[in-house]
Amino acid sequence: MRANNKIGFIATVSLGLMLSFNAHATTVTTAADGAGAPDNVFSLTGFTVTGATMASLGLQVEVFFADNTNSGLVNWIANCGTNCGQASGSVSGGGSWTLTQTGDTGAAITDPDTTALNAWTLTNTSSVTAITSVVLLGNFSLVFDRDLHTGGSTGTPGSSFGIDYTKAFESGFTNTGVVTAQYDNKGVVTSASAACLGFGTTENVGCGDIWGKVSFSFATTTFIGAPGNSAVWAFFQDTDTVGAPEPSAFLLMGGGLIAMAGLALRHRKAR
Fold first, then answer.
1. CA 106 to CA 101: how far, in whole Å?
2. Lowest-pLDDT range, 3-7, 67-71, 78-82, 195-199?
3. How many whole angstroms from its chain centre is CA 42?
4. pLDDT band for position 2 (50/70/90)?
5. Pairing of strands 84-90, 27-30
6. Quick check: 87 and 61 in contact, CB under 8 A?
7. I need a labelling partner for 265 at 20 to 30 A (CA). Which of 55, 149, 220, 247 fits?
């Protein structure tokens, strides 16, 4: 989460809109963390990520439908305006889906989990086939940053505060159930062993706030539009940028391995 010096009027309007959109009864719950392979990252290099920059970072989206089909992995692209990015595709039986996000994913007025500003918006224009779940993959260049403590805690050094998967608003469909989010592929910073800030152990073990994958599913097959009326589900989720070792680091590593191999060979010959 990044501090946002918004004037009081904008803050009030933003919160008012969020409350008015939240009139429906759908709630969000977070499932137990997944047991997928850790997302081993070299470092975190930035915590200001927008919808547009996620395209160059390799974000991919996969959407699953009620007829047991899926979209396959769809690349995130930046073609919808300033700081905006999206992924989209067709829905079997007619219609289309779109997931879009504009602005800093971690922007909030104060508390990251209650005053976040820039939602991701999922739209289903199909009146034939419902969307049942969605998967977001960071592909080792992007991680999803959680806030595991109310009010904000950093967790992994360099990540700043995160924003948990939380509801922003919904419209165009009736769902009195639950949307379940799950984090998987725990982020582990392999290049450092600093203590986690606020919770966790050390970053090379994993603080539990950064993840390589997040998915969410609808409890019922009701996320479907009506003729002329799209279904819309919006949520907040922070993201951070992952860094890779400099080329010189790879060269040094390679040189070290070669030197070790040479020493081992000479040792065998001496014996």
1. 12
2. 3-7
3. 18
4. low
5. unpaired
6. yes
7. 247
Q: How many residues does the chain have?
A: 271
Outline where 50-168 has alpha helix (H).
53-56
Backbone angles phi, psi at 12, to 5 degrees: -65, -45
Backbone phi, psi, residue 268, to 5°: -65, -40
pLDDT tens digits, 200-246 = 899 999 999 999 999 999 988 889 998 889 999 999 999 999 987 65
Q: Where are the beta strands (DSSP E) in the chain?
A: 27-30, 39-41, 43-46, 60-65, 74-75, 84-90, 96-102, 120-124, 131-137, 142-145, 166-171, 178-189, 210-218, 231-236, 238-243
For 65, the 3-state DSSP assignment is: strand
pLDDT category, 24, cuts 50, 70, 90? low
Strand partners, 60: 75, 137
**DSSP assignment string, 104-136:** BTTBBSSSTTTSB---EEEEE--SS--EEEEEE
Residue 241 tokens read as: 């940028």
- The burial of 68, by beta-carbon neighbours within 10 Å (0-12 exposed, 13-18 middle, 19 or more buried), is given as exposed
CB–CB of 171/116 below 8 Å? no
